[in-house]
Input
Amino acid sequence: MTGALLAVVRRDLLLAVRQRGDVLNVLLFFFVVATMLPLGVGPELKILRAIGAGWVWVAALLASIVSLSRLFAQDHADGSLEQMLLSGQPAAVIVIGKILAHWLVTGVPITVAAVPIAIMFDIGFEPACTLVAALALGTPALSLVGAVGAALTLGVRGGGILVTLLVLPLTVPVLIFGALAVDATSGGLSARPHLLLLGGLSLGSAALAPWAIALALRISLE
Amino acid sequence: MLQATDLACVRGERCLFQGLALALEAGQCLHVAGANGAGKTSLLRILAGLLPPTEGSVQWNGASIATAREEYAADLAFVGHLNGIKDDLSVLENVRFEASVRGSGDAGAAARAALAALELQDYEAVVVRHLSQGQRRRVALARLCVPAPARLWILDEPFNALDVHAVGLLQQRIDAHLRGGGMVVLTAHQAIELPAAARRLELDLHADAGP
Output
């Protein structure tokens, strides 16, 4: 079972390397959305410091949703999804492998890319560290919840906008606690409770999402 | 042993077939024939467990395939209309992935053996994107030849796009599989000589009007 999990991760990472343009586009999208903030609210540093971290979270959320179309759609179209579901491995294992690979090529780069953005908004050293920690803990939940939406909209016409409508409301808790964690650090309080909640959200979705996704994938093949 | 009882399939408004029963034992081959739209692909997808039948059930060794999903899938190799291989991976990478997901110990060696069986060994490093349709079909069929092979093969138009030589190769593999106690369910539009040694069930599916 672990062998199958690693094989799926390996395959999807290899595919991401071969299709690196898609992966880079997501990262570029994150940068572009993040840099829109000073253009919208003006370059006043005091304002940027106050709302910069929250904006980074919004950008991360949007970038992770944009990247969802990569997750199952290609495998669904070329028939490799049905082959994986017929491989004799539990569908949840395949799904976990695919989401892990997806997080490695979107969640991790976004977490790293948040560092230059944090410097740009001058949110300070400690809040920036909290932001990175919060993103590292919260982006798995974004990938997991997003994957449920991606699986449910497979093969549906206009699935792109539908997946956004489905997933955005479900990610509100991640956004709230992610932004609060940074606010707490800026205000001299401990970010620990917020970070713990973020980790809890990720673990909770890791426990529940794969089963829902496996079921949605089976339905999509009918 | 594969057994289906009282199968019915309704797609959209049309009833493709109903009251269909079939049984397949070791060494037997079932050729599903019928006109376009008669429901051949639907039947094969039902037998593979990808499509739940509107009515009836499919059993593998006495257990319903809807409940013993993983055990059934481990015994099954399915080649559908879609090849199920990735354009951006090389031939070897594709087959090695299938072998390792299916739990072959040495996936690399298993994949090489499967490719050699279909005479694809010279294309191991070629990216699938650069292959012809017939060669892609062969890569998809290589999953049948991964060692510790599946007992039941479900093949939807496996001969499509294959050249005469490759058709011969596949026929040999099917013959060998049946002699070894395997089972095959297939559809084929071409006038292909199917193994005579195996008991051959011919199914003619006619589209009924209305559900």
Chain A has a mean pLDDT of 92. Residues 64 and 106 of chain A are 7 Å apart (CA to CA). Residues 2-221 of chain A form one domain. Chain A has one domain: 2-221.
